[in-house]
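Students often ask what a holo structure prediction actually looks like on paper. The answer is less mysterious than it sounds. You provide the chain, you provide the ligand, and the output is a string of discrete structure tokens encoding the 3D arrangement of the protein together with flavin-adenine dinucleotide.
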Amino acid sequence: MIPSAFDYVAPSSVDEAVRVLSEAGEDAKVIAGGQSLLPVLRMRLAAPTMVVDLGKIAALRGVREDGDALVIGAMTTHYDVQRDQLVREHAGLLALATDTVADPQVRHRGTFGGSLAHADPAGDLLAPALALDAEMVVRGMDGNRTVPAAEFFTDFFTTALRQGEILVEVRIPKTTGWSAHYEKFNRVAQAWSIVAVAATVRVDGGTIAEARVGLTNMASTPVRATAVEQALVGQPASAETIRAAAAHAAEGTSPPADGNADVAYRQHLAQVLTSRAVATAAGV
Ligand code: FAD
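The corresponding structure tokens follow.
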């Protein structure tokens, strides 16, 4: 189907984009890589009267260090996140999860910020952002505000972004020296996760000193598996302790039921995939 007609603007600065968005009101939509928005427009699930393209704003692209954090511009493509040396060194979990997103064509167009703003619970970058305690820097007419990942994803395809606001960059506290794994379960290559688990751990002398685990597609938002994290910390990095901790993975989740999996199957998957993800991350 062909999208409804809309006006198109491509501002060259964030300030201009925010001003245009706020003047246009509720009927305006931001476009980043277009990999999720264009299908939505073509199916006429949305019919904005104005589309604001962020593609010409160079300041929104790239990865830099800022003390103990990595700062990733919202318009940085999946491809650029994947191959960025700073991301691989200081946020290995994000690099590994990004490797699993779609196919090379989508990764060259789609952006990190677009994935987070789209907030598809089956999207592969939300749980890593949550597990890494990322902070979203958001710009509106009143200036910048920072929203922790734990408060950013509020429901299916819904975030804490207010009308007229743009996600500008994502700050990720460094997890240098931690090891990580993203265990994604899908039925065909290059598809969204039926369930996936993002795990990163710091192992010290054979003991799991710190652990973060995030779950993809186990609720309307990404979920942090806190019971698993608590059960892992201070334990030896062994197959037995990891399996025992992973048994808590479905606690506090409310997974969807659909043609791919029912609730019980997703809960089972969460346990199995958590065990695999943590064991691989811990090198067991
Ligand atoms: P857009 O499509 O441009 O925008 C998406 C939404 O976010 C829109 O509502 C837009 O208004 C809003 N938005 C975008 N940027 C901003 C911003 N900076 N501030 C405020 N709002 C913003 N994803 C996965 O995680 N795993 C997969 O396996 C996967 N497979 C895919 C397979 C195919 C064939 C396709 C087409 C997509 C797939 N995707 C997958 C989605 C892909 O990762 C998209 O890149 C991503 O969901 C959206 O990024 P985008 O830059 O294209 O955003």
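Residues 263-282 form the longest helix (20 residues).
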